[in-house]
Amino acid sequence: MALKALEKRARELRAILDEANYRYHVLDDPQLSDPDYDALLRELLDLELAHPELQTPDSPAMRVGGTPSTGFPPYVHARPMLSLGNAFGEDELLAFDARVKKLGGIEGDVAYTCELKIDGLAVSLRYDAGKLTAGGTRGDGNAGEDVTANLRTIKTIPLSLRAHGVKTPRHVDVRGEAYMRKSDFERLNAEREARGEARFANPRNTAAGGIRQLDPALTAERKLSFYAYALGEIDADNPPRSQHELLAYLKALGFRVNEHAQPSGSIREVIDFVAEWETGRDALDYEIDGVVIKVDDLALQAKLGNAGKDPRWAIAYKFRAREARTKLLDITVSVGRTGVLNPNAVLEPVHIGGTTVSNATLHNQDYIRSNDIRIGDVVTVIRAGDVIPRVVGPVLELRVGDPPEYTLPDTCPVCGADVDHPEGEPMARCTNASCPAQLVERVRHFCSRGAMDIEGIGDQLAASLVDSGLVRDVSEIYQLDLEKLLTLPRMAEKSASNVLSAIEGSKHRGLARLLSGLGIRFVGSQNAAILAGDFGSIDALARASEDELVRSEGIGVEIARSVVLFFAQEPNRAMVARLKAAGVDVTAPLRPREPVGVLAGKTLVLTGTLPNLTRDEAAELIVAAGGKVTGSVSKKTDYVIAGEEAGSKLAKAEQLGIPILDESGLRALLGG
Ligand code: IVH
After folding, report:
1. Which of 64, 76, 557, 594 has an alpha carbon 20 to 30 Å from 410's alpha carbon atom?
2. pTM, whole model, 2 decimals?
3. Nearest atom (ligand 1) to Cα of 310
4. What is the rounded average pLDDT of the residues 58-75?
């Protein structure tokens, strides 16, 4: 293509992408599908790469991050960026209103606009002839840092202004808050945890840190957002005359404006608005730390003027703090129902947002280490919504001496068994299947349908068996008798004998079900069936080394390690011995190493609810017939077995043309 034609195509692509971006991020009304957007963006990126002369500063290609810089030049504000005075409580709002009336010479009620105070970082964006030309942080109000390339990565910041019913201003400074949505923050932290990296402390710091990255691609990764709420210098034909007009104007220029902003006819209405959001804030997908109240009439704003750096026409009502400093007295460790060791902070009691906090979570060892939290430190604690209070980190200036780093114990604080803490994994776990901390969950799982299928022992009975001390590990289920069961609250003779016959019936489920019932880490029904078929008895399995275990199809080192560790624990071996003594079948028919059977070499996917089989039962039948069960549909899938309410896997199978069977189809496949 001639350069002219390429230039035209680039312009066209930019226009389509820009519009799609606006519809998606500002209007929440997507127009292009993600793959279509990606394909067009790819085309533009390739074009600009091959012909750098076609690049423009307002190209959507800039959103993925331009060239890294070595530092930020100063960004001088044409009009100072003011900060805000604070108000706490109703009285201070009434005092603010009285001052506005007095200085403004107003008799009746003053009209205000109330806006949520977004907890992020204030930035100013400069547009010349409708194009974003520069952007900077607030800094000291007169000059901040020029972070233009980073701001271009924020999808809710228009690279060129729209003009919906207004004329494009010749020049305008648009101000607002760069912030991070809670959902984006959680996703980013989950990704970081999966990569073994430390979690970020809170959305605000993550947004502020994101804006100050030297490499804009790193800013782009944080997926920041922007709400516009103020103007700096402006050169336009019909500039807005009130704050509520100003917000509508910003919207018409293509900005995202917070939809909860509300004009209020009087300070009474302001007080209602504030009360509503002090309790309503947790439902939002972004953090707010208060409400900003602005005199609506811009002429009145000008008349009131500023007092130093704070305008006299606006005030920030601050919600009660959810963060406080206190001393970390100790770290205790509790063991969760799945055996995970949870470090907890013991704090000097401190008031946060209306309640007294003396305990907080520390997540795990990596969190403690990467945030450098040590016993004796003064720490920052936050309490957000209903979430358990969390220690954010130490106040390093206040650290006394050099307290030792904290390490989790290597034996379980509840039962003393070995703790398994795989390299690179955040969580440490107790390896003892009879650890009292895990027992209720273990018993419930052991008796569940996919495992030993003991009808009658559900959540409640499992808890009461453990609480009463009748069951101290799953083998003791087989020591129960009528007399013992009748000591339990609300246990009648009829149901007790039903439970006993269910227990008796479970003795013959075979090794695969037993193994999956034992809850060995990574050994679910499928791996249990494989191991049972390959080893034939629990004794052979208990003797197997990691090397022997990994020879089984689908058994990797991690699984093998977990199996070896399980059988190395004395309490686990004793429990197995008791199961055997009670007459529980601990054997399985050996499966020839090369899978044979009607489904040998076939891969199946299960989805939805089948009428008569649980998913585990279906998987067991398939594996017994030599087949393999995987979790996701791909071109390699041979059959998809779909039950009721099958979802995306079914759709995928249809799309790929993979045969879909129901339960009776599966039975036919298995030979009836
Ligand atoms: S107006 C003079 N409106 O709060 C006007 N600020 O404590 C100054 N903020 O630096 C800003 N949401 O970072 C305004 N709707 C909002 C806001 C808001 C958050 C931040 C902003 C400012 C700080 C002042």
Report:
1. 557
2. 0.58
3. 2
4. 83
